[in-house]
Automatic annotation (TrEMBL):
GO terms for molecular function: UDP-N-acetylglucosamine 2-epimerase activity. The keyword Isomerase applies. This is UDP-N-acetylglucosamine 2-epimerase (non-hydrolyzing). Belongs to the UDP-N-acetylglucosamine 2-epimerase family. It is an enzyme of class 5 (isomerase). Pfam families: Epimerase_2. Residues 22-365 form the UDP-N-acetylglucosamine 2-epimerase domain. Keywords: Isomerase. Its EC number is 5.1.3.14. Gene3D superfamilies: Glycogen Phosphorylase B.
């Protein structure tokens, strides 16, 4: 019996771990132990409810105003106790959060093998995204097995001299997760979203929360979107605003008081993915949306200076437009007025897998753990 311990602490990790946990449940030859740090409490709880995940251990480390140091030390201390109790064969982490690095480090200190899901992503700038780029590189150094979503991710790891026999191309589990959540006739709890005219209007879905964008870059993003809405009567904007008070202040100052701009509270994962499926264009500084939106046939404009997900850019499903007002405005204008350019992005092939990444990862884990 192979014992696999999964560790995660934020909503994105939970979403991408959920298909793996479902696949582990089906295996009678693997014992699955689930430990959450709850680095993000409320948003993680939403995912646990949605996917009916019942953790064996909840470290509950979240505190308002927590620093990266506090997250790391509290997670390390809590994970040490759990590892000593469970003695797993493999500890599995996903992505690039502080929980990921702390989980991998805790396993390393106890000489437990480490599997890194979504390995090999690189932006090339250690401080953007911050601290995620450092977290994934530091995790890679001590990981035993690297589950890379794409060939490009594998090549990044090979370029850093990781052994090829420890790297496995699997696709991204976020595509698996969409199969659980997107429904043809989805009804939103927020009635505003039910009343939007998705057939006759062009709905732009915005997400923006990156630390490095707060300030002038975010003001540019919001101003360009405001002006696009003002200049196109057929366009409406929906922005589920992040809870960060700095983001909310800029959003209300620039985007408030417009009947075709809808500033709403953050959405749970299920309504968010269904809103994305009904929208026309996605504008984001998020990482995960660059993977999800293309699988739903939605062009993605990435409002960042660099991305660790260049596969979508190369495939034509996403475009890196930066944070300058004119670049954002002009690219939106093109998608709204040029059907050929819109279709070119909407119909491009999603490079992030076929929705079976979780099953592949679990099968590899079983083979690796029994060597």
């Amino acid at each position: 019996m192979l014992k696999v311990m999964t560790v995660f602490g934020t909503r994105p990790e939970g979403i991408k771990m959920a298909p793996i946990l479902k696949a582990l449940e089906k295996r009678s030859n693997i014992e699955s132990v689930i430990c959450i740090t709850a680095q993000h409490r409320e948003m993680l709880d939403q995912v646990l409810r949605l996917f009916n995940i019942k953790p064996d251990y909840d470290l509950n480390i979240f505190k308002p105003g927590q620093t990266l140091t506090e997250i790391t030390t509290r997670a390390l201390e809590g994970l040490e106790e759990v590892i000593n109790i469970e003695k797993p064969d493999i500890l599995l982490v996903q992505g690039d959060t502080t929980t990921v690095f702390a989980g991998a480090l805790a396993a390393f200190y106890h000489k437990v093998k480490i599997g890194h899901v979504e390995a090999g992503l690189r932006s090339g700038n250690l401080y953007s995204p911050y601290p995620e780029e450092a977290n994934r590189k530091l995790t890679g150094v001590i990981a035993d097995f690297h589950f890379a979503p794409t060939e490009r991710n594998k090549q990044n790891l090979l370029n850093e001299d990781y052994p090829e026999e420890k790297i496995f191309i699997t696709g991204n589990t976020v595509i698996d997760a969409l199969k659980y959540t997107v429904k043809d006739r989805y009804i939103f709890d927020n009635n505003l979203l039910n009343e939007l005219d998705y057939e006759n209007k062009k709905i732009i879905l915005l997400t923006s929360h990156r630390r490095e964008n707060i300030g002038k870059p975010m003001e540019n993003i919001f101003t360009s979107l405001r002006d696009i809405v003002n200049n196109h009567e057929e366009v409406e904007l929906v922005f589920p605003i992040h809870l960060n008070p700095k983001v909310r202040e800029i959003a209300h100052r620039i985007l408030g008081d417009n009947s075709r701009i809808h500033l709403i509270d953050p959405l749970d994962y299920e309504p968010f993915t269904n809103l994305m499926a009904k929208s026309s264009i996605v504008v984001t500084d998020s990482g995960g949306l660059q993977e999800e939106a293309p699988s739903l046939g939605k062009p993605v404009l990435v409002v960042r200076r660099e991305t660790e997900r260049p596969e979508g850019i190369e495939a034509g499903t996403a475009k890196l437009v930066g944070t300058d007002y004119k670049d954002i405005y002009d690219n939106l204008e093109t998608l709204l007025t040029n059907k050929e350019e819109y279709d070119k992005m909407a119909k491009a092939v999603n490079p992030y897998g076929d929705g079976n990444a979780a099953e592949k990862i679990v099968e590899i884990l079983f083979k690796l753990g029994n060597r």
